[in-house]
Each structure stands twice: as structure tokens, then as C-alpha cells.
Amino acid sequence: MAAETVELPPVDPAEVQGNIITAGSSTVFPLTQAIAERFQSEGYTGNITIDSIGTGAGFERFCKAAETDIANASRAIKEEEAQACRDKGREPLEFRVGTDALAVVVSSENDFLEELSLEQLAQIFSGQVKNWNELNPSYPAQPIQLYSPGTDSGTFDYFVEAVLEKDKEKLLSVQGVQFSEDDNVLVQGIEGSPYAIGYFGYAYYQENQGRLKPLRIDGVAPTEETAESGEYPLSRPLFIYSAKTIMDQKPQVAAFINYYLSTVEDVILDVGYFPASAEALNQAKQRWLEATGQ
Q1: Which one, 125, 167, 209, 286, has the greatest CB density within 10 A?
Q2: What is the 3-state composition of the chain as percent helix, strand, coil, each rounded to the nearest 5?
Q3: 8 A C-beta contact, residue 271 and residue 28
Q4: Angle 155-30-271 from CA coordinates, rounded to 5°
Q5: Closest Cα partner for 212 from 111, 104, 107, 112?
């Protein structure tokens, strides 16, 4: 039986005043950008800043510097980050906004690879395997070229947790890895060589699907169904964070989050991600109602 939908009070963007500052995950960036563009197209005349700087850097600006209103995050906040927020009088509120399937991709010119196991992925990104033919003798005797989001990225954190047993040094110690916080840089690097491999949020694969090829992981392709069911082994939740104190002081932030949660399902598939479960979205809406005393 489907969960009853929690409804939030209607928002008229034309009546919302004041600026909004967000920063954080490059994965959540296109989703927040799509919501902001829709908010503005319906009459909001303020300015929404959306900086794509990585989840960790986004929490730095939200918690330690206390200079942003919303943190975009592709992982849950860590306890030390939450404590830094509390030290600034900001009890962090978590709002689930969607689901991402992390895409492991190669160039569309790669004609020898269709899938990997998680174990093979770990061997590749820890440097245990340096040439493709060491993985399979039928593959080319060519060096594996690695591309990865940088250490400020929640995507990096998630990959390390899910693939490399939470040991980031396994990847950081590999010679020659190309790191970048800009997913578009990764796309350009990977598509440029049939011997390159990298990973990022599913939206960036979707934007470039004619140039890249996603790999099945443990025999499962990343799709809406496999991400939602958890069958795809590299699926993860997406969040935005704010705080009641911010929402009280800046009604425009509360209004934008309301609008975000009320409309995210209308745009998320077009952006390239998958909806959160009805239960998770209801929980986020209920948290908004409690924070605003409604």
C-alpha cells in the first residue's frame, strides 16, 4: 500500500524576497540548479548562488564558516561536521531529495569492456592492476588511465567507502590518477582514450551518453529500478542540509526548501537522477513542517 503523501503549504515564488546561498556537491549541483531555474521562472526575483565545490567543502562553508544557507551533499553529514555546525548555532537538518547511481564509465571507443565486479573495480582503482591485460589476457596490453573526483567530493568519499574498504590512501597512492572536482573535466579525459576509466554521478553520464559507456557492476546496470531497489551496488542517497535557525532568520530559504521538496519529483528524472522513495521524501517534508512550526 502506497504511503500517504505529506503535503507542504503552497509557495508563490513571486512573493519570496531575499537572496539564497548554496554550495556543496557537484553531483547535487545540477538538481539544485534545475529547481532554482524553475523557482525563478515562476517569479522569484532574488539571487540564488549555487557553488559546485564538493560535499566536504560545502559542509566547511555551511558549518565552519557559517556563510551558506544550504549545503548540497551526496553523502550524509559526518558527526564532526554536524558538531562544527552546532558550534555555530546551526543544528543541521537533513532533507533527502533523490537517489543517484554512481556510474563507472569508459569511452564509447572502448570495445573490450562491458562490466566489472566490485573486486575488479577495487583492483583497478587501488593500482593492483596497472594494465588492462592483467585484468583479462584478452584485453589490450595498455596502461589503465584512471580518472576520479577529488577528495572534496562526496562522490570520492562514497566510492572509497563502497569500493576501497573506506581506505582512501589506496586510491591516493596510485601514480598518475587524474583528480578533479569538476565532473566535466573527468568526462573529457575519459572520452579521449579507449583505455581510460572513471566514475561520477549518473547525471553526468546521461549528459554525455553518446561519448561514454556505462559499465555493469556485478552484472547490474545502473537504472531507476536497480538504484531504488538497491540491486545496483553503487547507488546512494542525495541530500540538501539547512538549519532551523537559518530558516527562521531567512524565510526565503524555508520557502525555497519547501519548493524544492514539492517539485523535485517533477524534474529529477530529466536531470539524470532517480526519485527518493515516498517514505524518504515524506520524512523530509515532515522535517520541514516541524522546523517551521506548521
Answers
A1: 125
A2: 40, 20, 35
A3: no
A4: 100
A5: 107
pLDDT digits (tens, 9 = 90+) for 125-162: 999 999 999 999 999 999 999 999 998 887 888 899 89
Which phi and psi (to 5°) does residue 56 adopt?
A: -60, -45
Provide the phi-psi class of 243: left if phi over 0, else alpha when psi is between -120 and 50, else beta. Answer: beta
How far apart, in whole angstroms, are the C-alpha atoms of residue 9 and residue 289?
A: 9
Over residues 233-284, the pLDDT tens digits come to 999 889 999 999 999 999 999 999 999 999 999 999 888 788 888 889 999 9
Report how far residue 160's alpha carbon sits from residue 170's, in angstroms, rounded to the nearest whole number: 9
pLDDT digits (tens, 9 = 90+) for 164-223: 998 999 999 999 999 998 888 999 999 999 999 999 888 788 888 889 999 999 999 988
Q: Report the side by side order of strands in the sheet with 48-52.
A: 48-52, 20-24, 70-73, 235-243, 92-101
Report the C-alpha gap between 187 and 291 in whole angstroms: 39
pLDDT band at 2 (very low <50, low <70, confident <90, very high): low
What is the rounded distance in angstroms from the CA atom of residue 240 to the CA atom of residue 102? 18
Q: How big is the chain, counted in residues?
A: 294
